[in-house]
Each structure stands twice: as structure tokens, then as C-alpha cells.
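Self-study notes.
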Amino acid sequence: MDPVKGLFVPGPTNVPEAVRKAIDVPMEDHRAPDMAEFTLPLFADLKQIFKTATGQVFLYPASGTGGWEAAITNTLSPGDTVLAARFGQFSHLWIDLCQRHGLNVDVVDVEWGEGVPVEIFAERLGADKDRKIKAVLVCQNETATGVQSDVSEVRAALDGADHPALLFVDGVSSIASIDFRMDEWGVDVAVSGSQKGFMLPAGLAILCVSEKAMQASEEGGLHRCYFDFKDMAATNATGYFPYTPPMTLIRGLRVSVDRLLAEGLENVFARHRYLAGGVRASVLAWSLDLCARDPKWYSDTVSAICLPDGFDSGDLLRHAYRRYGISLGAGLSKVAGRVFRIGHLGDLNEIMVLSALAGAEMAMRDLAVPIQPGAGVAAAEEHFRNFAPAAIACTPQLVAAE
């Protein structure tokens, strides 16, 4: 049997054994009389992950793209204007989805490698005296470029302009890995997916919806059926779903949420910062650049690493896969062939990250990328030895050599 490939893309991520076992169960009756005893506590605990007391969680059999569509079709009407920045493939795709639904998107194009341009957003919102902008779209973590944006600053821009627009956040590669505060930041719809920080196979769009967004869904909206918040809310209230749910994934989600809450969300965030720091130390030691142009944009869940001119990242990915059995993330769209990506999110520790770095380092050396042998792995080792968060650091028993 072929050995298991090392998975270091920014999603899907590794599925922990306990979650895999929870998924691998016989089929069950999703309308069983006792189903609510399982689902209602799960809905309540998911609200802790989003850090909300008043929001409502919805689980749709879909990808994150389905979550985007649910967000806009429930709350916006034909011809509405939304404000969004395009600075990577996934922010671009959300804009494209809005345009296909007949929305007027005020697009702010930004260099790929930067994040949400809060100052420009503040100007646009302040100038919108007629309140034509109905929603602001924010990609908290742009997976294509390894760029992380500050959602709280966008909320501050909305508040500074006293603007009533809804705030939508794509948190597909951030929620359950990077700090997210639904209520504190006044987020109206947050979209996530099962295959990243939630450590599950792909197949669930996980949304959290504010009371304001629920009210907007009652007052208008684009055509929708499958994604209708009203249908989902009515059946979820009793612990059931308006159509057949993927119960195996939802059983796995129960275990995933338990793991996240047992570790403690702040510890989860600290662990991701720590692992990301090891990858960044490695990139620096290789004398390579991140696609993210400034430390303020550095993502704690994925690093997009630029290769020197004359090297194709596609060649690197194919060689790393075939020779060393590891999957690294490809460059997408504008950065295709220029960057490779290492995902460092979900069920991950230092040794797993080091294997990704060692595989990438060997593959680059094989292709004659000018890096110092061993430099990246050594730098990451030193970071991990010296900067472990308190929750995962340990003090080994040392025997003094005399």
C-alpha cells in the first residue's frame, strides 16, 4: 500500500482520529425523536466558537461558497450596492458571486499581498450620504496570498461613518483558528467551512447570523430556496433540519467543537500564531519573501511563499508530491507559478510543520532554488524550542553533565 501523503495545503486539513471515528458510524434517522437532544446543545456550543450570545448558527450541506451565497441571497435585494476589496482569489470569487446575482459591487482593487484597505473603506462609507451601500464584505483571511485583515478596524470605519450597512465576513480559513468576535465586532453574517479550522472533511458551510441580518432576511432578499434562513431557523428551533442533513459530518462536528473548547479558544489562537511563526522563521532563513507585503498582513493559518524569478512553483509542487509525498498549496490566479503555500491550521503541531518545511526545503534544493541547506528547518526548530505558548510548553527533566 502506498504511504499516506503529507497534507500541508490550507484546506482541507488533517482530520483528527477522534473526529474520523465520530464520522465513521452507521446511518441514522435524522428525524428520530431524540435528535434534538444532540443538535440543540451543538448549536449552542458553536455560538461559543463565533463568540456570540445573540447570533444564530446555521449548518448547510455546502462549501464556503454556498455560505457566501446564503449570506447575500437572504439579506440583499436586486440592485443593492455592496462594498468589497479584491486582493486575492477568494475575495475575487465572492465579488464575482455577488455580481452574478445582480448586485452592484463597489470594488476596491488592492495589490495582492495586502489586505482590506480600511482607510478607503472609511472614505467610501463616509461619502455614502444616501446610504446606498447595503453591505460591506470582508475576507478576514485571504487564503490565496496568506493575508490576514483586521475585522475590528472595518467595524470602526462603519461606526465612524455612522453607517447602517451590514458587515459580512468570510472566515473560512480563519474561524476556529484565528481570533473572531462576532458580537464585539458587530459582524452580521460570518461564513466558515468544515474543512479548515473545524478539522472535518469538506461538506458543511457553517454560518453565524446576527439578529440584524435575520431581520433583513425577513424584509427582502434575492431569490433563494435551499439557503433560506427562515426555513432553516424554523426547523432548527426544534432541533431538526428542513432537508436531509449530513449527519456523519455533524457527528464529527460535535467532536471537533469539543476539542476546540477543551483546548480553549485563546490557546487555539496562540498555537496557530506559534506555528505560523515557525514557518515565517524558515522563510526568512531561506532568504525568500512572503506574498504578504508587511508583517501586519501575515496570516496565522497559511503562508504564501514567493520563489525567485525563473522558478515555477508548479514544478516545485509536483516534485514535492512525487519525490517526498507531501502536498503543498498552489499559487492561484495572479500568483500562479510564483508562490507555493504551506497551510498551518487545524490539527497540527511542531513536528508536522517541520516535516512540511523539510519536504519543501529538499524539493527546492532538488530544483536548484538558491537556499542554504538546512537553514529553514533549523530556524523553525529554534523558534519552536524558544517560543512555545504556555499552554503547550513543557519543562523537560534535564540531567546535568558533570
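Second protein, same conventions, sequence then structure:
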Amino acid sequence: MATNNTPVKSPPPEGIGNSFLIFLDNIRKYLINLLDLREDTDKQGTVEGIKKYIEIKGYNVWILISAAMIASIGLDNNSAAVIIGAMLISPLMSPILGIGLAFGINDRETLWKSVQNFTVAVVVSILTSFVYFKLTPLGIITPELDARTAPTLLDVFVALFGGIAGIVAGSHKDKTNALPGVAIATALMPPLCTVGFGLAKGQYLIWGGALYLFFINAIVIAFTTYVFVRFLKFPLVEYANETEKRKTALFVTFMAIVISIPSVFILQSTLERRNFNLQTENFVIAAFENSDQFEVIKYNRNDIADTLSILEVILSGDTLKRDTIPHLEKIMHKKYPSLRNTRLEVKYSGVTKQEYAVMVNNMSNTGERLEGMNLAVETLNERMNKMEDWQNNVKGNKVDIMPMEVIQYELQEVYPEITELSGGFMIRPEKKDSTVTMVQTPSVNLKWSKIKESTKKEYEKRIDRYLRARFNYDTIIINRMK
């Protein structure tokens, strides 16, 4: 019997290319399984749950009013914790989800009901906050209010991902604890209360910006709900052919894009402003902060035209040389591009660097140093404002009082030996060209503690020179009180 000794050929090993394709396919299957929502979605329960809470009436209205009042109080007092509490109890999200759901399942009745209740919720919230801000004794613009007046593209993304989290959490078979977080993230109630503030104060830029922020949140959340309802293939209530589906999709997408476009330009403006502020800070530090002769008290920018700004720097200490400011301005324009259309102005507080240091140190000894410095700056600002008013009176020949509050503060900070101080204008005769006229002469009355007579005289000479230079007096009378 013949034997076949031909060896059996084993199958060729798989090539590297085939192995890589199999690897990619496994990753694809894993990602699909990881991100799949269909298996855990409760479609019927989701539709019933959203429809159940769409209507704003009865207890929902009272909750809405309470939420609007709490949010208004939080905004008025600049309290983030109170504002968060208002967002947690606010029922504003339900009619917005109802609008997105109605578009997704082609349910005209639910759409109409959602729009009606959405409108009621908006009106009630704005009216409640309007009444509050009309009656509140505070009613000033706080950082929490200001933060809701200029929405940017980043707010669009917050609303987008907040809407995703909301519809995904709401459609899951096992309800999660994500919905309270969504309510906080999307922040629907605070913008409406900011609208009420703007209307109560008659400031259209505030209420306009806040209303825009609210509609960004509302429309993007509704759009996200619509997209996920269609993606998860919720059953349609009314039949819609492909043309109707396409028109609905185009309309919802168009609304979401249109409402988002202005936020792109606002974001660009915000970034430009932040860059300007950063370069301003860097310039001030580089130009002034390392000097032994003076110290920066404050600086701020004033926009005087669309393309021109003034950077005002207020210094304590010595005055700069005449050619120093143009030189610094050239450096500013060359090294800091955002400041090319900015003019530099330097003003002086009228106190030396040492005097300013004494003021700050005295305050820091009795409290927190930071609080002391803030108080010192506020005091100096107040003094400068009073000095500007007084100098304007001088220019208008309306001098009938002296800035005694400023003089008293400055002298007693530097000369604690002064126990009493008063002053005013004395009417005294002055002879000129054989003619006698009555003139007003500034006068300061001082009472000293028990110090040497020579020290008193030296101090009075210094005060005379200081006050004449400080207030541009030709002469001043220093009297000693008994």
C-alpha cells in the first residue's frame, strides 16, 4: 500500500496589516458599547416625565416665585450660595425640555403647551425680580449681577453640555443625581432676575445682556434635547415625512446657530479686554513698581473713543522728569501691542512715598494689612476727588472754603503731635499801589502737644512750605492755638 509522505501545509500566519485592522475594529466596538445610550433609555418614561412637569401653575408658580425671589436676594447681596439654592428649586427647565421634546417627536400639542408655560415662567420670574429690585434698599450692581450681562461663546458650551447631561440623565432607566447639577450649570433663573434688575433701574444694557444669556441657555438646551430625542429614535406622535423632518431639523439648528453668533463677538471682545488689562498691569509693574522715589497707588483706563484710551497712573512720591512720560509712552507703544492707541497720564497724590508708607503701616497695625491698604487707597481717592472739586472752584473763583478734611488728615498722619486743627479763610487788608483792598487769605490753626518750642517752629515752617506747594497758595497764615 503506497504511503503519501507529502507534508501537510499549515495555514499561513496572519499578516501585520490584518492584525492591526482587527485591533481597530475591537476598539470601535468597545467605544460603541461604551457610549451607547439606546440600551438604557426609557423612552416612554422620559416622555411622560417631561410632559408631567411642563405646566407652570398652582404649586409650581409658588416655587417659581420663591426661586426668583431667592435668586434676586442672592444677586443683590452677591451671595453665590443663595443663588445656587434658587437654581436648585427653579422649575424653569421643564418647559424648555418640553419644547425640545415636542420638536423631536413631532408633537404639536406639547409644543404649544410648552411655549405657553415657558412664556408664563419667564414673565413671572422677571416680574418678581422687578418688584424686588424696585423695593430693595440695596439695588446696586454687584459682581454676581455684572457676570450675567455679557454672555460669550463659553456660555453656549455650558448650555450645550448642560443640556446633554440633562436629557441623558432624564432619559436613563435608573434616574441619576445629575439633574441638580444641570440646574446649577445652566443657570436659568439668575439671568432672568438680572433682567428684572436692569428693568427696575432703567439700564437697558444690563437687562438686554442678561435676557440674551437666558435665551442662549434656553434655546441651546432645547436644541440639545431635540438632537438626542432624534438620535435615540423616540417614537413620533404624529407622522412626519422626510421633508417635514428636514425642515424641522433646519429650523431648530438655524435658531441655535443664530442665537449663538453674537456670543462669538462678545467672547472676542472679552479676550481683547483681558489681554489689554494684562498688558497694562505688566507695563505699570515694569515702569513704576521698582522705583525708590515713588509708589503706584492705583491705575485705571478711560476709553475716550473707539480707538483711543488713556492710562491714568496715580503715584505717591516725587514727580517725574518732564521727558520721562513721553519716553515711557514710547516703550508702552513698542513693547505692548494692546496699548498702542493708549495715552499715558501720570498724576500725583500729593503725599510722599514715606507718608504713604506711614499711613499703610499705621492701618496694618490695627487690622489686616490688605484691608488697611484698601482703606488707604479709598481714602486717598476720596481726598483726590475733593481736591479736584476744590481746584475747580479755584478756577471758577468760587473759593470760600478750604479743604480742611484733607489738610487735617494729611497733617495729623505725618505730625501726630498736632492735637487740634482748624482753619479757613481770613479777610485781611492788603495794600498795593497805595490802595488798600480786602483779600481772602488761607489760615490754619494748630494746637500742639507738649513738645519743644524749637520743634514746634520747625514743624510750622515745614507745614507752611508743604501747604503752599500742595494747594498752590501764594501765602498762608499758621496760627498757634492755646
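Instructor comment on the second fold: The longest helix spans residues 242-289.
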